[in-house]
Structure formats: C-alpha cells, structure tokens
Structure prediction request, 976 residues.
Amino acid sequence: MAEPTTTGSPTPDEPLLRAEDLRVHLDTPRGLLKAVDGVSFAIERGETLGLVGESGSGKSMLVRSLMGICPSIARIRGSVRLDGRELVGVPRKEARTIWGNRIAMVFQDPMTSLNPVLRIDRQLTESMRLHLGLGKKEANERAIELLTLVGIPEPLKRSRSYPHQLSGGMRQRVTIAMALACDPDVLIADEATTALDVTVQRQILDLLQEIQAERGMGMILVSHDLGVVAGRTDQIAVMYAGRMVEHSPTADLFAHRRHRYTEALLGAVPRLDVPREQRPRAIPGSPPDLITLASGCAFAARCGAADDLCRAQRPELGEDLGTHRFACHHPVGTDAPAGADAASGDGADEKPSLMKETPA
Amino acid sequence: MLRLLGRKLLALIPVLFLVTFATTALPDLVDGSPVAQMLGPGSTPQDLKDLEHEFGYDKSLPVRYVTWVGNALTGDLGESLKTRTSVMDGIAERFPVTLELAVFALLMALIVAVPLGVWTAAKAGGRVDRVIGGVSSGLLSIPTFVSVFILVYFFANPKMMLAFKPTGWEYISVDFAKNIEFAFLPALALALAEIPQFQRLLRSDMLATLQEDFILTARSKGLSTPYVLFRHALRPSSFSLLTVSGLTLGRLIGGTVIVESYFAIPGLGQGMYQAINGKDIPVVQGTVVVIALIYVLLNTLVDIGYSLIDPRVRAR
Amino acid sequence: MSTLETAPAVGETPATAAAAKSGKARKRPSFLLWFAIAWMALVLLGALLSLVASDVFPHGYDKAFGEAKQAPFSSWPEFLGTDGLGRSHLTRLAFGARVSMIVALVSVVVGVLVGGLLGLVAAYFRGVTEMVIDLFSDALLAFPPLILLLALSSVYEPSQTSITAGLAVLTIPGFTRLTKASAIAQSNREYVTVAKAMGAGPGRIIFKELLPNTFPAVMSYSVIVMAVLIVAEGSLSFLGLSIPPPMPSWGGMINSAKDDLSLYPSQVFVPCAVLFLTVFSLNVIGDRLRAKFDVRDTKL
Prediction:
C-alpha cells in the first residue's frame, strides 16, 4: 500500500489541509438540512483562513466536520485531506488518530468546554497519553510547559485546579494549551474569543497568532465578526446558508469586496472613523431556512440588488483556489443590475478579474 | 460546611423525638397487657402486676419515655419478653447480616444499572434503548416477594437449575465463599427492584451531560466513544445516582424483612418478624428505632454528602 | 373465475397491509395503555362481583370442590385451577382483588383528603402551621414504610380495617408534600394575589383557587400510589400479617403456596401474575397521566 501513513512526509503539490466539495447534510425530522453544501478551500503551513458568517451559516458545522464531531444524523461527503491523507469516509478508528493529534480545536465558550469535574492536568494530558503514548510523568511535565507557553501564572498549581477555579480568560488559555498538546499541524479556533471580554479577546487572539507563527501551523479562525479576522488572516471565506459566497486573499477582500452579502456584513461592523450616517446597518431580514432553500441565490431575499436572475439561478463560486472568488450575479462595483443579465452574470462565474474593479 | 452539618442535625431532633416517642407508646396500643403472654397457666393477677412492674409498664407514658431515652443513650434497649436477653445484643448480632445483604444488593444493582444507563443514554431512541426501557418498566412492577419466587424457581430448583441453594445461611465471618454463594439470590431479589430506577435516573442525567460542550471537546481530542462516555460523561452524570444510592441503602436496611423471612436469614428483618409473631414488644421497639435512626441519619448524611462529591458545589 | 377473484385481492393486499402496519406503528404506545385499562377494568369487575354478587362465581372462595392443586387451563369454568385445599383460584383471586382494591382505594382516598387538606393549609398559612405539618410528615417518612406497618401489626390484630388504616396513614405525608408544593407554586401566581386583593378568605382561596389547580398532579400521583399500596398489602399478606384466612388475598395465596414452588409452580405464579399485571397496569396508567400533566417524580 502506497498510502501515506500518519508520519508520512507531505506529498508534493498537496497543501497542508485541503477540503474539496465538502458537504454536511443533516437528516432532520423536517427534511434534509444542507448545513454545509459544497465547500472547497486549501491552507498551507503557517497560513490562516478566516471563516466568517452569521450564526447558522454553516461555519461551525464545517469545522466540526473536520473534527468528526458532527451530530449523529449528519452525512459528510466530499473530501478533506490533511497532507494528502483522506479524512472523509475512513473508519472512525482511523480518523481518530488524526483528531486531537494533527488537527485540534479551540471551542467558543471556555466556561462550558472544559469538563467541570476533572482537574486541568487530566484534561490536558489525556490526548498526549493517547496520541503520543506518553507516560503519566512525561505528560504532566509537558502539560506544565504548555500552561507556561499559553501564559498561565503558577502553572504547577493551576494544573491541579478544577476549571471553575479559573477565570474565563484563563480557561480559554487552558483550552488552547489542550489543543496544542500534541503539536497539531492545523488549529481550528471556533469563535474562540466570542465569549470573552474585549481586552481578553485581544490577548487570546494575539496568543493564537504568536503560537501559530512560532510553530508554522495552519489555522482556521472562525468568527461572525469580520473585524476579528481582518488583520490576522491570509485568506477569508464568507459563508452564507451553508455555502461560501466570497473567498479571497484577505487584503484583496477588504480592498475589493465583491459579494453583496460581504458588503452588508462590512456595513454591520461598528466603526468610529466613518461619518454618523454610515454607522452600522443591520442586514434586513433573517437567514433563510436551510431545509426549504429555493434554487436561486440564498441571499436574494435580503439583497438590494437582487433581480429575477438571482431568484431563479444560483450564482456559482469560481473554482480557482487562491484567487478572489465570489458567487454573485451582480457583484459590488458592477452597478445597474438591469440590462446586463447574461453577460455580467456569466462573466462573474467564469473568471472574476481583479482588474475589473471600477472606481466608485 | 460545619454549619450546614449542624443545621441538618438540629433539624433531626424533633423528628427523632417523634419517632422514639411513638415507639415508646407502642405497648399502650396493645390490647390487654403486653406481658400477659409471658404468664404460665394458673398465674395470679399479682404475677401480672409484678411482671408489668419489672418491665416498667405500670408507669405512665412520659415517665416511661424518659426512662427509655436515658437507657437508650447508654445502649440499653431493654429485655426481650421471650428470651429475657438484651435487645441491644440481639440487634448487634443481627445488624451486620442485614447490612451485608443491603450493601451486596446495592452493589449488584449499581454494577448492572450503571453500564445499562450509560448504554441506553448513548443509544437514546434506538432499539437497545427501547428494549431496555420496556424491560425496566416491567421490572419496576415486580414486587420483591414475587421476584424471590421467580429467582428461586429458576435458579434454585432441582427441576430447573440448581445453581444456588435456597436455604443454609452462613455468616460471612465463618465462611466467606459460602456466605456470598448463599447471599447472592436474596441480594439479587432486592437488587432487581432497584436496577430499573438506577438505570432510568442515570440515563436521563447522562442525556443532559451528553449535550454539554465539554463532551464535544473530549470527542475532538480523538478519544474513543467508550472513553468519552465513561471518563468524561459518567462522573458529572452520577451525582443524583450516588444520592439515591445512599437513600436506597437506608431503604434496603429497612426492607429486608421479606427476603430474610423467606430465605431464613438471621438478620434484623427476620428478628423483627419473629418478634411480631411472638408479640415481643421490646424487640419490635428496639428494632424499629434502630432502623428508623439509621434511615434518618443516612438520609441526612446523603444530603450533606451530595455537596461533597461535586467540586462545583464544594467550592461554594 | 378464479383469476377474477384473485385479481382484486392482489391489488388490495399491499394497501391493507400498509394501513395495518402504519396503524400498528402509530397505536403501539397506546396499546399498552389500553391493555392496562382493560386489565384494571377486569380487576375492578372481579372485586365488584365478589362484593355484591358472589353467586356468579361457580364455586365459593372458602369451600373445596374438587381435586387440589389443579393446573390452570385444564378445566372449565375453573380455568385458573385450584389451590392446595381444592378451592377455586378464580373465585379466590376475585376476592383477593376485592381486598386489594378496597385497601388501595380507601387508603388513597383518605390520603388524598387528609394529606391534601394538610398540604393546602400548610401552603396557605406557611409559617408555624407549615412547620408543624412538615414535622409530622418528616417523622412519618422517617420510618421505612414496611417497618411501620410491621410495628403496628405487632400490637393490632390484622384485619381489613387495621391494614387499610395503617396504609392510609402512610400515604398522607406523600400527598401533603405534593399538594403543598404544587399549591405553593400556584399561590405565587397572579390570580391568587388578585383573589386575596379582592378580599377572599382563606377558605375560599384554598378551595376555589388552589384546590382545583393541584388536582391533576394529585390524580396521577394517586394512581402510582395505588400500585405501591397493593404491593405493600401484598407484602404484609405474604408475611401472614394481613387479612386472616379464610378470606383470600393475593399475597396470602402466594404465601400459602410457597412450599409448592418446585412441584406446582402454577400455585405460586398464578396469583403472582395477577398481582404483577395489576401493579404494572397501574404504573402504566399513572405514567401516562403524569406525562400528560407533566408532574415531576415524588416519593411516597
């Protein structure tokens, strides 16, 4: 078998983590819920992907499918490869050697994501003992190192504490230490700072960035807040109703946002440097029901520029990873939705040109 | 913590007063004289008076109560009307047997119910869950004296399977193996009624725990499902089960009468049963008070102990 | 001809099979409930007949009429066989139902009336009244129930009245706690405050406002308590401390047949099965009521 093993060296031309046409469908009593529907992306070592969207856009389900922690009613299809090794459709037992070992995750709420009745050291060492085969003593020593690394004072004392004896920020540092335990290649932070105070939020984000740079990990930063991911990512994917609607290198996205939804999201971020009239605007309406989704663009109902084409036909996202991709018939910058149905729509589908930007 | 303990124990005093007072009043409810049966044929009314005086039944209830409490505090629960031996000694001899039976039954129930509870919670709504749920609701409706017959018929019957002997109690201090062998069926009969309750309780607590975020965290570490269930989910789900186990132990100590009288086990329940049939009031009194005392104290301890096992509560 | 006949039948079969299947799947949980109701109706019928029209039974409960220890389903109309003295199991089980039902129903009614009243009074007045009532409840609950009954049977000659009285006293604290808890929950609602503000007296508030709203919880609890009471009475008769012979009771029938277990198991298992089915049915009905009214678990 020429299959690469866990320790196999990276296949040339394979990015560190690559998802292709990933789908997570849930068999709910009401019908099929397409929580994630055809998502592709790639991350290199040392690179950060920002995953942005409202709650219910499928971003959490997407990262959970990477970690094998979807609800039991979920059917996962498509492909996720870590260093060329497929994770979708392989027996759980095999995939478990990857989860928590080479891909690890930091969860949203540090108050609930730690087991309240187990001491910190137990929770820190169990994955090291499982994946790295460390003995109790070695694992404990490493746990102290990790706690020091994430900036916890008195790590020896803290490691013997129960979670409720630590503050929220401290607990999130512990969960980061837990995720780092096996020196993972990919770190996923699922709204890792949402539940924290603003000042603590910053510290945690800086910590994550620092550790990532130090270790050359790939990272996925999930957030509902474009502001959080703005300065800390290499590429950003905006999700809406289970699909990516815009995906681009970070700088490009902020300079030339194309999708109407991204535009709306940016409009919803509070800023102090803009005139009062342009203060945050809520996006009108609410996210669509994913079970009864119609065939057109999912955002059409809430979009100011939507026309019949939008309601009838779903715009496709480009296939070239690494370029500025967006799924919109009437992207920002091409004004006057009327008149240019077929031409501009197809043009946008085929190859979104970065040069095409018209000055406002 | 100490204040909580003090308050709980203080609250026990009026309850204990009523319990002991009611037991002391027991002889007054007897039709005729409690000691009448001790008299042989041809005895005179004076003999009766003498006996009543000897056992203190000629005094008024309040006087008797104070005397009784004073004696009880020094460990003297009076004399058996039948054997004229110390009631306390009889209880001290019989209590370990009953305690062993109750603990054995409790352990048995937990050993069966905990895996079942975890399993049904992990597979909630599935076929396993429904089958076990159905069996356990049936089991819940089988009284102990019926399960005794079912067990004896199938497992201690020369015509079916003679795996156990229905009689022949041996003290644990005399022959451990023989003791366990004989105690198995009676303990199982007691345990059968508790298993469905434990399983249901653990299942519902487990279901709540499995919804928690920290279970996702544990699963995201690549830990196996059994490991997550038993190491991460079981402990935070077991607090009410532990509490109920404590209460159950108290109930079992007071509920062994049926199995002890059927299997001829020389425990408290059998002693009480014989005393009732023999109208041996002091023995009944002593046994009732001891059992009620254990029951009440155990309930209070469990109440306090609950705050000791959960680190979250302990911190407050 | 034959083809003509089979043709529609073939067309019909899948449809009817599907209908039957979906019907079964839908009705499945309530099948148990209907069975339980039917069984309880049967038990009540037996109890009622033995009370008012014992002549309908082919043989009396206290007279031998044939061979002893006949197995069930060997003859008609005595299809449940005979006991160790050749008496009719059928008649004796019906009379046993009478004992069980009277004991359980009377105890529950007394428990509901006395316990419910005490609970409502405690909930309305709170303070010292509540403390005193709680104290007596706690003291009564401090005895394991069977132990208290045994203690009483040491001084009273067992009879239907004494057993019923003892069990009734034991059911009181459970109902007191239940009505108190649910009445306190009710009395914090606005409509009670409104009634008080309008000058309604304690009697009016207790009986017109609090009582009707505690009813559902009390009703479903009563059914479960009946099951517990039947087991308790059975335990006492099993120990020979209940209704004296020759009056039959289920526990007593089990007790008197216990030495025949290995040779004539039906002697023991026929009354056992009747007792089990009754307790099971009451539990099923009680659970259903509780689910319907969403009442939380309370211990007797």
